[in-house]
């Protein structure tokens, strides 16, 4: 009986997670390679790093010139980006998990935002 309860609970949580992540997938993505190209050609590109400030000092570092607003604070601080409303915004985090909801917050607020799948891990793995 305990095993059946556990299995049932697990299945409910798993189904809810799949539904949540399917709903939270951003409409627009920008690969690491596309980001590298955009950095060379688009002087108006803004990179929003949604990790905590301490993570920017960690072993993955940061991309030069990023704006840092942690995803936990983005909803309240989104207006700080208003002067960048007409720019393309690449949203990055450590692995791509936090940048998904952050990208959706920006899109919902009228920004031209793109999630960077794989985040800084993919950026570093690509030799940057």
Write the H/E string, N to C. HHEHEHEHEH
Kindly, what is the distance between the CA atoms of the first and last residues, rounded to a whole number of angstroms?
Answer: 52 Å
Tell me the fraction of residues in β-strands, as a range. 5-15%
**CATH-level-4 superfamily name:** Rhodanese-like domain
The outline comes out as globular
CATH structural class: Alpha Beta
Number of helical regions: 6
The chain-level mean pLDDT equals: 85
Helix content: 40-55%
Query: Can you tell me the residue ranges where pLDDT is under 50 for at least 5 consecutive residues?
Result: 6-11, 13-24
The name CATH uses for the topology is Oxidized Rhodanese, domain 1
Structural class based on helices, strands and sheet pairing: alpha/beta
* Number of beta-strand segments: 4
Named CATH architecture: 3-Layer(aba) Sandwich
Largest sheet: 4 strands, parallel
What is the C-alpha radius of gyration, as a whole number of Å?
17 Å
Question: Can you walk through the features of this model?
Answer:
With 128 residues, the chain is of the alpha/beta class. The chain has a single domain, classed as Oxidized Rhodanese, domain 1 (3-Layer(aba) Sandwich). It has 6 helices and 4 strands. The protein has helices at 2-24, 32-41, 53-56, 71-77, 99-108, 119-125; strands at residues 46-49, 67-68, 88-92, 112-115. It has a 4-stranded parallel sheet, with helices on one face. It is globular. The relative contact order is 0.19.
């Amino acid at each position: 009986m305990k095993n059946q309860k556990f299995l049932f609970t697990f299945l409910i949580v798993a189904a809810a997670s799949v539904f949540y992540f399917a709903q939270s997938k951003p409409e627009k993505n920008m690969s690491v390679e596309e980001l590298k190209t955009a950095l060379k050609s688009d002087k108006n590109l803004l990179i929003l790093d949604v990790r905590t400030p301490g993570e920017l000092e960690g072993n993955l570092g940061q991309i030069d010139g990023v704006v840092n607003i942690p995803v936990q604070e983005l909803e309240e601080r989104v207006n700080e980006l208003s002067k960048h409303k007409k720019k393309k915004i690449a949203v990055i985090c450590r692995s791509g998990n936090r940048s998904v909801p952050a990208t959706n917050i920006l899109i919902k607020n009228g920004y031209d935002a793109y999630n960077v799948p794989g985040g800084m891990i993919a950026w570093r793995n690509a030799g940057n």
